[in-house]
Amino acid sequence: MTGIRKFIKQYGWSYLFILPSLVTFTIFTLVPVLWSLVISFQDYSLVRGGKWVTPIYANYVEAFTLLNGIFLIAIRNTVIYTLFTVIAAIGLGLILASLIQPLSNRLRTFFRAAYYLPAVTSALIIGLTWAYIFNAQWGFATYLTRMFGLPPIRWLSDPDIAFWSVVLSAVLTLPATAIVLFSAAMGAIPQEYYEAADLDGASPIQKWWNITVPLVKSTTLYLVVLYTIASFEVFERIYIMVPSGVGNSTQTIVTQIYNNGFKDFDFGIASAQAFVLFAMIALVAAFQFRVLRSDVEY
Amino acid sequence: MNKKWFLLGVMALFAVLAIAGCAPAAQPTSAPPTAAPAQPTAAAGQATAVPTPKPTVERAAKGGIRKSTSTYKGDLNLWVLGYTPGNAFANPFDNAVEQFMKDNPDINVTITGYPPNDEGFTKLSTALQSGQGIDLLRLPSDRLPGFVRDDLVEPIDSYLTDADKADILPNVLDVVRVKDGKAWAWPLWVVPMGIYVNSDVFKEAGVELPAKDWTWDQFVDAAKKTTFKRANGEQVYGFSGFVDPGVINTWGLWMNQDPSVRPITTDGKYGLNSEAAASGLQRFADLALVHKVTPPDFGSQKDADVKGGFTNKQYAMVVDATGFAPQLKNNKVNFEIYPLPTVNGNKLTVGAVGLIAVAKQTDDQKRLAAMDLGRYLTSAEVQEDVPPGSNVSTGFYLAPGARKSVKVVDPLDKFLTVLPDMWITPLVPDWAKFTRLFHPEYQNILFGKEKPADAMSKIADEAQKYLEIQ
Prior knowledge:
The complex is a heterodimer. Chain A has 13 helices and 2 strands; from the N terminus they run αββαααααααααααα.
C-alpha cells in the first residue's frame, strides 16, 4: 500500500498529462472493442438489443459459411493483396529513398514532399482517379492498351482481372510514408561506414546492400507492420473502384464486415469477423516482429 | 557528376510516374465520347438531372386532405429516395411539402434525401434503427417487410378512410399487407421497368424503330444494328442496364423465359435453379457474350454511367424504371419507351411499388400528422398542386399512381400498358440478403465465368432460407 502511495506521489502528476488521451482511448476504442467482443457472441439488433446465440460460437461458424462461404474468399483476397502491396511498398520505398539520399538537401526535401503527396490525398480521390484510369471504355489504361494494339481489357469488370487491377493501383500509388521514413533512417546512418567501404573498394550496390539495408532494419520492421495492418484493413479503394463486387472476386475482410454490419445489420456476425481479422493481424505482426527484430546498433 | 545526373534522371522518371499515377486521368482519349458519361460518384437517379427553375406559383392554403386533422405543432422529417436538391426526384416533393406547410403553418417538414442504391438503404436503415430524425420515408416495397419485422414502421389501417379504401388499387394495397393482415405503408406509385430507346441513335444508325409488340429476336436485331463505331472512333452500343444487388432492372429480360422463372415459385420454393431459368439467363448473358451489343463493363457499370451513356447517345437502348423518363424529358432527349420484348409469347415486366411509410412514433398527434402527410403525398390532390410543366416535367408523379384518381401524363402513360404483366419483387424480410447472395452469381453469368445452371444451383439451399416468409 505504501509502495502504491509512494508511486502515486512520485509519478502521479505525470499521469495527468496522458489522462485526456487515456479517457478518449477508453471511451472511443477500448469500450467499443470489448463491447464488440460481447456482441460477437450475440444476435444483436439496435432495436431489440442482444441475446446470446447457441451454441455460443455460432456467429463464428456462420461468419465463414454465410453467403456461400464468401468470407473465405475475402480472407484469401486480403492475404494476397497484403502480400503484394506490402512487398511493393517496402521495396519501392527503399529504392526511392536510396535514390533521393545522395541529392542536395534542397532537392531531397523537394522529393520527400512530392512523394508524400499521396499520403495527404483523400483515399476517396485516389480511388476515384484509379477508377477513371481503369474505365473500360475511355480510361487511360484502356487508351494505353489500344495504343499498343492490344485487345480491350475489362480492368474492373472481369472477375479474373479486377482484383489485380486494384492491387496494381495500390502498388503504383507510391508508398509515401515508407519513402519519408526510410529517407530519414538513411540520413541517420554514420557516413564513416560508407567511407570505410569506399576504402575497401565496395561498389554502390554493395554499399547499399551491406550497409544501408541492414542499418534501416528497425525502420523496415516498423513499416512492414504498419503496411501489413493497413493492407489487411483495405476498404476504401475496393469500395470505390469496384462497388459492384465483380462476382465476389474483389471482396475483402473489411468489405464483408461492412456488408454484414451496415447492410444486413447482422452485428453479431460482423463483430465475429472483426475479431477473426484482429486475430490474423496479431498473429502476422507477432511473426514479423520475431523475424525482423533488429539487433543492430550504431 | 555523371552518376549524379543519372540518379537525377531516374528520380525524375519516378516522379513523372508517380504524378501520372495520382493525377486525374479522366479525360476521354482516342475515342472521345460526344460528352463524358455522367460522374460515376453521382447517386443513381440524379446523373442526368438538370435543376430547373422553381415555379413561380403563389401557394395558398387550399384545405381538404392537405389540412392535417392533428393538433401537432413541430417538425416532421421526411426521407425521400433519390432526392438531391434540384433534381427530378426532389422538385416534386419540395413543391408538395411547400403546399402542405401552407395548409399547416404549425408543421415544419424537413426533407432528407438518400440515393437509390445499397448505400442509400444502409443510411435509411441506420436512421430508422436509431429512431432519430425520421418520421416518414419514401421507400420501395421490397424494403418494407424487413422494417415491419423489426417494428420500425406504423400500420396505417386505423388512418385509412373509406375514400382511401375505394381509391387505392386493391392489389397494390394488398402488397403492403405484409404482416398480421395490416397495411404498413401508403402506396404511392407502381414502378415498372421499360426499354428506353434513343431515337437519335437509331436515326444515326439508319435503323427503323421496331414495332412495340416486339419479340426477343427483334430486340437483339435492333441492338446489333445500333452497335456501331462513329467516324470519330467512338463506339456506340446497342444495349445496357444497371446490375446491382439493390436493383432488379435487368431481371425481366430473362425471367420472361417462362412464367415459372421466379425467385419464389407459387409453392414458396426457390425457383431459379430450373432449366428454364438457366436458358433465360444464358439468353440474356449472350447479349454481351455472343452478340457483343453491350459495353465492355456491362454487369459492373454504375447506374450513373448507364443513364449518362444513354443520355449522351452512347447506348441505343437501356432498361430502366419510370423515374428516368422525367429526367430525359427535362434534358430534351429524344426517346421512346418500349415494353420488354416477349419471349415464347411471354409478356413480362418487373418492378416494385413506391411507398410512403410512417416511422414508429410515440406521440399520437405527431403520428396522425405524419399519416395525414403520407395520405396527401399519395393522393390525386398532390398532382393538382404540383402539375406537369413547372419544374417537374411529369408533375408530382414519376410513375403511374397507386390510386384510381391519379392521372399521369406523357411519357409515363406509356408504362400503363405494361402494368398488367408486372411482377412485383417478393415481400420477404430477407430479400436484400437474397439479392446479395444472387448478385455475384448473376454477375459471373453475365461475365461468362459460370454456367447459369451451376451458379443458380450452388446458392439454392441458402436462397431458400432467405426467401421463406417469416
